[in-house]
């Protein structure tokens, strides 16, 4: 049987610190990384920008637009084409809210299922999202589930947005995040769940470095790497 690249997944609710952890682990291991929320946000951006009405009949149009943001080399998906302006637009609250809405639709999830799997390449993939360990890569070598108190998550998100030059108000973000949490956890298809073999990390009282150090120790142990 063809050997598949190893995968490490990080799932959890928004603002729990998944993105930075994913980036830091990928950098430390020199693996590929995929922030799956970015693709959901990109689909929302495409829908709004091109005024596409949401419905299964338009799924091919959405896919066509989405493919124009993917960079292939010799038929192998290398990355998502991005730039600072696009990244900033994808961080906006209306994009975040629409992403959580379209993420409830089975035909959107089906479209993104294959696209996300294409990121699995050697030497390995570190990825974060809501269903990466439960649905997309159930055979992941290590699954982390990151959580934190909602007030802390909101504070972090407000700071992240401010750092990107986006105005953000604590109460508005709190309201949106609660709504999004509910929608992501309660939806019928691929809801946010803790995989039964997941390592749960609560980052409420931990710094980015502390969460990274905890996770990397699990990773080094699992892959029998030397801690230096
Ligand atoms: O991680 P994020 O906040 O960028 O994700 C935006 C939305 O995309 C989130 O509210 C739900 C959806 N999403 C999902 O349903 N499944 C994933 N694997 C990643 C994101």
Overview of the structural elements:
This protein has a single domain, classed as 3-Layer(aba) Sandwich (Rossmann fold), CATH 3.40.50. The radius of gyration is 17 Å and the shape is globular. It contains 10 helices and 7 strands. Strand 3 (70-73) and strand 4 form a beta hairpin. The strands form 2 sheets. It has a 5-stranded parallel β-sheet. The protein has 228 residues and is of the alpha/beta class. The longest helix has 17 residues, at 170-186. It starts with 6 loop residues before the first strand and ends in a 6-residue tail after the last helix. The mean pLDDT is 93. Helices cover 50% and strands 15% of the residues. It has helices at residues 18-29, 36-49, 59-67, 84-90, 93-102, 106-117, 132-136, 150-163, 170-186, 208-222, and strands at residues 7-12, 32-35, 70-73, 76-80, 125-129, 142-147, 199-202. Bound molecules: 2'-deoxycytidine-5'-monophosphate. Residues 14, 36-37, 40-41, 96, 99-100, 103, 129-132, 180, 184 line the site of 2'-deoxycytidine-5'-monophosphate.
